[in-house]
Amino acid sequence: MREIAEALALSHQRVHQIVDAVRRAGPSCSFCGKGKDDVTWLVTGPNVFICDGCAARASGGATGECSFCGKTTAVFAGPEARICDSCAVIAREVSAAASPR
């Protein structure tokens, strides 16, 4: 972290404060940025998350690599992640199973 602090012209302590603040914030949707307290649920992928709202809207468009399964196919893209139709279906199924009946 000292190298990061030096590269950014920040103190080592300030870099630690920034990292700690991000860790405390918890996960957020990689597509819309909403935090876990602002959505019904978040489905976790490898270093990515998708909320119920984005999973409901997800529909493939451009071709790219899915951030959840790694396949190159039509994907719904957000600023930080992409999700293919198959993974979006699974996310919606998780939502349906987790919803109170």
TrEMBL record:
GO molecular function annotations of the record: protein dimerization activity; unfolded protein binding; zinc ion binding
GO biological process, one term: protein folding
SMART domains for this protein: zf-C4_ClpX
All copies of domain ClpX-type ZB, residue ranges: 17-70
Transmembrane segments: none
Domain of life of the source: Bacteria
Keyword Chaperone: yes
Pfam families referenced in this protein's UniProt entry, alphabetically: zf-C4_ClpX
Keywords, sorted A to Z: Chaperone, Metal-binding, Zinc
Family, similarity comment: Belongs to the ClpX chaperone family.
Descriptive protein name: ClpX-type ZB domain-containing protein
